[in-house]
Amino acid sequence: MADDNHPRVRLLCRPKQLNTKGSDPGVHFWLVGSPFLPPLTVASFLRCIHSLPSSSSPDFHKESEDLRTLLPKGFELIGAVASGEDSDARAAVDAARSLRKLLYREGMDRPLIGAVCGSDSGDLRFFVSESGNATSLEAVPSVIEERDSEKCLWENACLLRCELPIKLPVYYALKNPTDVEKAYVQAVEALIAKLRDPQAVYMLETTNKTSLDIPLPVIIRGVQLDFYADLSKIKTLAEDDDGSDASSLSCSYFSNRSKAGSPVFSAENADTIQVSVLFNSFGTSSASTVPFAEYFPVEEEARLLVVDIKLDVLCYSSRELPLKYAVSSLIIPGLVDQLNTVQKLMLPNLLAQLPQPKSYHFSPSGILHPITVFYELSFGETEMKQVEVRRSLHSRLGLPYDRPLLRISNALDFSKVKSNGMISLQKGSTLLRDVHFGIPSSGVTGGTVSLVQGSYEYFHYLHEGYNDSCSVFSEAGGVIVIGWDKGWGCAYRSLQTIISWFRLQNYTSIEVPSHREIQQTLVEIGDKDPSFIGSREWIGAIELSFVLDKLLGVTCKVINVRSGSELPEKCRELALHFENQNTPVMIVITCTRSFIEDKPNEHFFPFATKDCVSSKDKTSCKWDKCVLQSRPRKLGSNGGFMRLELELNNCELSSSIIWMEGKRKESEWIEQIGGGVLAYTLLGVDYNEASGDCAFLILDPHYTGSDDLKKIVNGGWCGWKKAVDNKGKNFFLHDKFYNLLLPQRPNMV
């Protein structure tokens, strides 16, 4: 055990992509901590992405501009990571001090961490400098890696949020428009002074309005604020503080006292305090007054420019921090920093097209604390400059480059209600999500589980009162279309579940399409005739891939399996899909291969059913009262499945009749038939490569009951299915052909 006199570094996370082998020596990461955490506790590693053109040294000016906005107040820079030998730790500490001077304009008295990453091993070694005047660094013999990082960061913490819309009036001389920049800077400076004015008023209240025990709002006036307090030295309130002075109340006053069950520690579930800014020009005087206007004469013709600014500040705080310090040391500095950031964006374009910068708060997976990002909204999210901004942020945070994690739709939504430690939407979808969470294990011994990553919604039969579980038969003037499935909508429902995954992962903002909209899409691309819209005909793997490509721009990989007995052989490939692509997979069971005859030299293929005799003249069948009314009609421009219309004269058929046209191979015919008997959604596999034992996590769209999670799981509508169960029964049919549709994750940020 390390000596208590030696410093200890606590790690709440490990840096991503730490390997610096082959890279230039210098600073690679900044270490982020908080005055509300134990000393020398590292909450995150942020990559240094700006360096000077002539050297590998950081560009401190650009780095400070980025980090001043990115890090919410309540988090701070506490060190740096350099590559090289132990002697390079001094360079890391010096770089951290230089950056802190720009960020916080502070002296040299703070202890900082200098870490060194070996270029070959990638191991981290930590050193501590107690102050800038220290001549030597002290090696850290003990590094503690917290197992429950989220709890350590959020158990005794909360968030404060302040939204401040501003209409900033700027007056400038018409003859000298260049004065507008000077006038704008002066207006911003006046606004900053107003935030610190003794007559300013700050109202604090909880965002959780669902509790029966809602604390009253707290009013703090500017005259009560201390703008020179050091957060690391502020004493928290004593437990016996009676709270007689509202400004001395701590942030815990707004804690959700009604939480029950096991709490979930994260930025999304943290108690949030809403702060509103009110400007009171008359102080606390109760004297009656009347409105008045003040006239300011000008020497020459002037113009008025009104600049719309929307500030949105998020801060991290200890629950024990007095509210007055939360305002003076967190909220107001955050507002000032955002005003300065907006000013730099606005100044070059004041008399042209004004930029539309807006701040958003994110909590991407793998990053313990929230971040704040300014986006320019003038040209939309897909504009190339915005893409590059997001790519740069992914680089700094160590996020993958093939998925959208920092789009506007990913931003924290503070309109959600926090209840029992979990989040529920006040409005929006009521569909069940992620129904596979908490299901029993698969029963595969020594297997490796590979699952879908990200959320999805469970779409099944009879959702929204739409009956897609009835038979495929439809009549019109005595003519019926015959299908082989008792239900026709399972593939539609599985497709809706897959599209919901792309929507919830923010690859798209479109709504999940209805059955009719799916059919309309297939008609628009020429795959189906207009009569397909509103019909009850199935769709299969190829049609599904067409819809995903048309609506989302998503490509799909298709695996053809000639028999259900061969599906376990695809487990390794499916496991790689879930590990690399993470998307749900659709399983489509098609017709038996005995229905197909490969006669490429004939224009028409013979048709057959269970009870019907193949007929070369295509005009009769076993039932003499069943007469073919018309030739098979092609449903798609690409060939494939045909619909056979029969006139019924007291004739009862129990099976499908298939007629196909064209010159294609057997597998292509099977693929084009589509729909088939059943469609499932595959959410994962559990595979023991040594023994070959495997199980498939199936989400069944054929469920017709209410959205009762317990009923769904207990009924086997979502659960692990072994290819062969303990009783020797096969889950996958050996005489059926299976198509697996594997949507590929778009490579985008």
TrEMBL record:
Keywords: Hydrolase, Protease, Thiol protease, Ubl conjugation pathway. Transmembrane segments: none annotated. The keyword Lipid biosynthesis does not apply. InterPro entries: Rhodanese-like_dom, UFSP1/2_DUB_cat, UFSP2-like_2nd. One of its GO terms (biological process) is proteolysis. GO terms for molecular function: deUFMylase activity. It comes from the Eukaryota. Residues 711-729 form the Rhodanese domain. Belongs to the peptidase C78 family. This is Rhodanese domain-containing protein.
